[in-house]
Structure formats: structure tokens, C-alpha cells
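Entry 14. Structure prediction run on the chain below.
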Amino acid sequence: MRVNDMKRVYVNEKWCLGCHLCEYNCAYANSGEPDMVKALRGKKIRPNIVVEEDGDINYAVSCRHCKDPICVKSCISGALSIENGAVRVDHEKCVGCLTCVLVCPYGCVREGEHGAVTKCELCLNNTVGEPACVKGCPNRAIVFEDRG
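Output returned:
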């Protein structure tokens, strides 16, 4: 699969309600817990998608899986790579220098809670089909499609 032909997460801000359910579904999908209540109750969620608000407009921001990602180029440890068109993080290789956080033009790479960085990986390890943020969007403002 070429990067240009890959499905990505897109957001239609006209339909985004600002409910933040995409954030909760993302955090749960990446928690490793089999139960959403156990995964999220009483914990600060750390989603890889974040709803931003600008006046009356809400929109979700997540990794764009760039064709030529500067985060991958700047990674000194080789922890960031492209796998099947998606920018992935090898948490074992990440040294926590946060260079990728600084260079991401979209603010989509974040410091993780255990030292390694975290970012959207399209739920490639978590679900079959579409990412959890897409499945959990009640208004279908978030879609997973190929617009190449």
C-alpha cells in the first residue's frame, strides 16, 4: 500500500458537536483494558486525538500521517517509522528527547505518560476496520477514508 492510497482520519468540523467522545474512545482503545470503566474511571485520559474549540467551531486533531513526515526524519533513536503508510512509534526505542513533539507542525505527537511519545497510529494494533475515534463519533463528523 502506498502512502498516497492509505485511508486516514478526516474531520468535518460542520458536524463536530464537541462532545469529546472521540477522545474517550481513543483513550480506551489504547488503554489495553477490556472494560471502558476500568480503563478510564478516575484517571486523566490521554487520547491521541484532541477536540479543539474555536468560537462556535469544534474540530478533532490527530496525526495526519504525512507523506514525508518531519517527525520521522527528526527522530534520533529511530523510534518513529512508517509502516503500511502510518507513522508508528516503537516505544522500546524512544529515548524521550521530544524532538518529534517540537517539529510536528500539527501538534499531534505528545509526551506519553511513561517517557516514550504517543500519537495516533490509526488503531492498527487495537481494532479491526476503522479507528476507535471514528467508531465512537455519534454524528459521523470523523471519518476514515482514502481521499488520495
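The chain has five helices and eight strands.
Filed with the rest of this week's runs.
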